[in-house]
Amino acid sequence: MIKKLETILKDINVLLVEDEEDLRFILHRSIYKYVNSIIEAKDGTEGLEKFLSNDIDLVLSDINMQRMSGLKMLKKIREYNSLVPVIFLTAYDTDENILEAISLSNSYLLKKPFEKKQLLTTIQMVIGQQRSSEEFIELQNGFTYSLTNKELYLNKQLVSLTKIEKRLLDILIHNKEHIVTFEMIDNYVWQEKGATQETIRAFIKKLRKKTYPELIENVQGMGYLLKI
User: Does the keyword Electron transport apply (predicted)?
Assistant: First the structure.
């Protein structure tokens, strides 16, 4: 099991959101050997900030927290990324919260208390399912996008993208067929640095040149739509 875990989880970045410091430490110690990195947050507000400023592959989160709950955080995350899996860790909660948690897309529930083996098995299952079900997204004209590596390929050859171009394409891919507003792009790609609409348009133009014009559609006065 250990070798299989290391193979599956070695490249993933985990966002750990838990308001109890002792439990957060225990969770960190339970998984840090198997994953690439762990980014910690003490509530949903900080968790959302950390999600937007890092490349996150999996979220582990409590539900009931100060400032922003795990459920509200996930709803905010879904505005930027519809695919990243979230495992909610909860002990005593209302049936309403539990039902809402498992009804949200790509979300899972692990009830406290649980053993380290249960946690690792759940993480392995979630990441394994995600990678087997949709590792690549097929675009047009020979382009494919790897959800695992966050890389773009043309006829199986890697397309060189800058860091900003990668994050821009990533938010469009994860919200394919949905409008991605200028504000969403600014928050996810440029974060606290900020970007004007003219700057965003310039990078969209660069992406179109590296792919094909029809991939990204303008939505007048709102933002952009990725067409597959």
Answer: no
What amino acid occupies position 115? E
Residues 90, 144, single domain; the answer is no
Residues of the chain short of pLDDT 70, as ranges, are 1-6, 92-105, 131-134
The partner residues of 14 in beta bridges, in order of sequence, read 38, 58
Q: Which two tokens stand for residue 127?
A: 């990441």
Number of compact structural domains in the chain: 2
Q: In terms of domains, do 7 and 113 share one?
A: yes
Q: Which residues of 172-210 are buried (b: 16+ CB within 10 A; e: fewer)?
A: bbbbbeeebebebbbbbbbeeeebeeeebeebbeebeeb
Are residues 20 and 116 located together in one domain of the fold? yes
Contacts of 108 (CB under 8 A, 6+ apart): 85, 86, 87, 88, 102, 122, 126
The burial of 223, by beta-carbon neighbours within 10 Å (0-12 exposed, 13-18 middle, 19 or more buried), is given as: buried
CATH of the domain at 155: 1.10.10.10
The whole-angstrom separation of Cα 83 and Cα 158 is: 22
Q: How many CA atoms lie within 13 A of 32 on its CB side?
A: 9
Q: What is the pLDDT of residues 171-199, one digit of tens each?
A: 999 888 889 999 999 988 987 778 999 99
Residues 60 and 159 in one domain: no
